Structure of Poly(A)-specific ribonuclease PARN:
Amino acid sequence: MEVTRKNFKESLNAIYSAIEEADFLAIDGEFSGISDGPSVSSLTNGLDTPEERYQKLKKHSMDFLLFQFGLCTFKYDQSASEYLTKSFNFYIFPKPFSRNSPDIKFVCQSSSIDFLANQGFDFNKVFCNGIPYLNQEEESQLREQFEERRSQSNGSQSFISPSSCKGPINVPDEQKDFVNKVVVSAFLNNALSCSFQRKLIYQTLNWNCHIFCLIFTALQKLLSWLFQKERYILISKVDDDERKRREQEKQEKEQGELNDAVGFSRVIHAVSKSGKLVIGHNMLLDVMHTIHQFYCPLPQELIDFKEVTMCVFPRLLDTKLMASTQPFKELITNTSLAELEKQLKESPFKPLKVESAEGFPRYDTATEQLHEAGYDAYITGLCFISMANYLGTFLTPPRAHISARSKLIEPFFNKLYLMRIIDIPYLNISGPDLQPKRDHVLYVTFPKEWKTSDLYQLFSAFGNIQVSWIDDTSAFVCLSQTDQVQIAVNTSRYAESYRIQTYAEYMENRQDKQTCRRWTESGWTKSPYSTSPAVSSYGYSNNKTPAERRNMSPIQEEQASDGMEEPEDDGDAPGSARPQPEAPAAAATQGKSRKHKRKAQGELPPYGQPLSPSRVQAALSI
Amino acid sequence: MEVTRKNFKESLNAIYSAIEEADFLAIDGEFSGISDGPSVSSLTNGLDTPEERYQKLKKHSMDFLLFQFGLCTFKYDQSASEYLTKSFNFYIFPKPFSRNSPDIKFVCQSSSIDFLANQGFDFNKVFCNGIPYLNQEEESQLREQFEERRSQSNGSQSFISPSSCKGPINVPDEQKDFVNKVVVSAFLNNALSCSFQRKLIYQTLNWNCHIFCLIFTALQKLLSWLFQKERYILISKVDDDERKRREQEKQEKEQGELNDAVGFSRVIHAVSKSGKLVIGHNMLLDVMHTIHQFYCPLPQELIDFKEVTMCVFPRLLDTKLMASTQPFKELITNTSLAELEKQLKESPFKPLKVESAEGFPRYDTATEQLHEAGYDAYITGLCFISMANYLGTFLTPPRAHISARSKLIEPFFNKLYLMRIIDIPYLNISGPDLQPKRDHVLYVTFPKEWKTSDLYQLFSAFGNIQVSWIDDTSAFVCLSQTDQVQIAVNTSRYAESYRIQTYAEYMENRQDKQTCRRWTESGWTKSPYSTSPAVSSYGYSNNKTPAERRNMSPIQEEQASDGMEEPEDDGDAPGSARPQPEAPAAAATQGKSRKHKRKAQGELPPYGQPLSPSRVQAALSI
């Protein structure tokens, strides 16, 4: 169901009840851009720490607008053994609701806009009919103003708002008689008797606009003086019932306006309050944007972001992470959403029984509508069901249907896929992150003329290496043998053009330890999932030893992704923004961009094999 | 005529000939936003210097996208005594033309987007079918790459591009025989005989992607070595005619791709090369955006911006400035484009004979299509014709038609309207700017709690004052009597909470003198227009003495604009972005935004009377 500003109000009850009755929810967002930094590759270093990645995404991605939000609810019908889905595709735009409302500026990235345009995205629906929204602070400000006005008018009708007086002004019953004696004439006499105000009013007698401004100042001062002395003013007095009726009408109208302004945020609040499992595909950016846009500016520190996320979405599941983990990683060669959906239609996965609920249009996965957020949310949900049901085949006796409440899927809760980090597959939202040893990693600085090939040459004596560019003059180099690290560092001691440090030295310099210590203090050091029986049964086992993995060259790992024909655009990284391996002929003619391209190649992670043995070890050892 | 990416190429000849045959051109731009600063009022202080205003616009307005460009050409048909118009409405979008092209990020301001959406603006046309463009630097980079490739292939077919070799590689005739002897096998043998490269290739034998990258490095090194020794390589040799044919085909294709990428910039280049008079309404932002987007990033200094502008647009005319100047300012109460167009249909202005050229759709001014750039350009041209013809009534004998080449309009050339500056009506593009004395102006700093009313109170002994807010803790205060300035400064000497400086002291501290000195050095101190007979005949006369003006209170001046019902949205300042005087009731209930609103009111200039007597004096005295 398409939801714009035009049908939002009338659709709200349907949305609320869909969320209420659902077994789980799937979401997806479309954004006006991905990275306002120099390039996506600078956003994703293969050896980022989770903290670094969070900071980069926060800095370079939050100025874009989440302008389409897909929500698909899934309800299991036991009797028919099928899922009923209700899919909503929301268009979102921060239309200023009044002259005082914030005038939001957002960035658009032409590659992302062009990508969406090619997918038939309807920008007019966003900009002309997008549903407005407020974050929590904007909402409370508006609510406060509304409460203030209500309290002020409650008991004292037609009162000129003394906006300099903080808090509501309630006239106590025992004071009302006294208040009634104070009338407008006395009030104005009072005002005029004050020579300062009289002079001001006299001066400005012919002034058209400023006169109001000045009289208000005078009135304010007088009012605050009166209030200090516990005196109260009623300028006009109307029939009590009539007054109450008018008041109620006005309040209802204002409450309506407030709700309209909160707009789409109400949907997110409902999702949050439901506490239901929320599924997404490669969903870190979706979660960050959702919190940033509808709750609050993202916290400075990753640990605080995790806390906020757990408040907003107590249970998350990322299908890209699930598909990249045992037992699925052996079965799935390409984890991009569209490819994953296709592969999950084949054996050993079972066909699904999923129907659109009455009154909801049916999505046809044969005629793809990729990158419409509602459709992407729908197929994300399908992927989850396929994979969850597959886990049921491991049980004795096997079960065909695995519910969203099953213990079997708990190991995947609150772990969000981390794009292109070599040895940390996910961000652990409800606990500390994996801390892989990285004792085979070197931090190398060099002149800005250096290319990847120079690094390969420098380390040619050390066997296969893997290069992750940080910026123009530095990179991480992973050696295949940890015991060679010290040799490399020692060898470089007298080098003039470059400098080599161990990863530990590098981290020490960055003083990143503070964040780690915070984890310990808050008692999150013990993973809630490490002892889960589900983990050992299928979750984190791997046949390759770390040594075997380290003997793979980066290119061997890259080959694993060669079958991938499309760029891996999971809705959060559309189109040309993502560097792709290029054909040699193109590389030869595009000399100017060669260096950049090589960097991008150098840091591409092994697609389809994000869980390396060393990572799994780390996961099991926590 | 609507022009998008789809019909751009086929329309180009029509556009070129329309520009070529025109007597003058009118332009207008629509942007994705106006100010990314905190508010428009912070962008426009009533006592900005032209330098300050330029810096502010450059800093806070250039990240927006000019995404619709209107061009209307006007050709006078002597025999029919009528103008023939050709109007073009271009949709513009920086679609990346290849994977290496710049990925432009631009900002959208929700109030501006909402404003355009309400006007029926078609965002899909912009984002899906917008015409691409390049600025000068991007174009030359692309052209250079293209030339490089052409030179490389010229004479040496199928050559692997040695991208590290700068400049074209031409094989001299006398060397060709020698070159022909060097064949691929020898070449590769050579490469492999070099142990360094062999080792590299060996190491990477199983690597799928990096092998190319590495072989290229090896080849490059070898090639540069060969070239140093004046040896040349031809890998394959084909029939000469066939080679030339292929080469030409390839070059034509590349030239076509280059032209496609330059896209809309070609239209602006044609306008520029024509040297024709270019008319706009309140056109400073249009000119800045046009130069920024299609030529080069705006220069740091205003004086350099003026120089660039004169190169791109040698003759400009701003109808808002024209309408705000004698003799029109007495006749025109509201200079916003839509109102101006209406007023110029009434007496004493004469009806126009204007027809759309064959094949061009006719705009009907009765059914307004305001804020479609093509329409706005069209009525801007109409306004110019009406006002120009009116000047003809001053001649003896009077003339009904005044051409775009007439001396009568020259005084208006290259003066761009400056929004809301009290005493400098325009930016003088082809000369030094007016330097009004401002010896009645004080610079006041105070605690951030102060409001406009506090300043009125502070200066209550000094008669009428005018306040122009700079930021939260400072403002300019204009006194009515210059001789009171020193009294005010002296009085404040022992004040603790605030501080008063003369304008001269303030400017001295800001060390703005450097820029002024540059003007003198470049010999622009003498205005080319001050002695123009046209000026004294009708241009800059005024009945009010400076003293009379100074006795006007700011509110009296503001009243002059009360007749203005619409916000003054000239296409460059749409919607709610512009502060408007607010009704007193609203002010009373909107306590939170009161301070800001007052500031906005305080700095509103006298609409419809931008040329104050003091300014005219200044204009005449230069």
In short: Chain A touches chain B through 84 residues (CB under 8 Å). Residues 185 and 235 of chain A are 9 Å apart (CA to CA). The first strand of chain A starts at residue 2 and ends at 3. The radius of gyration of chain A is 30 Å.
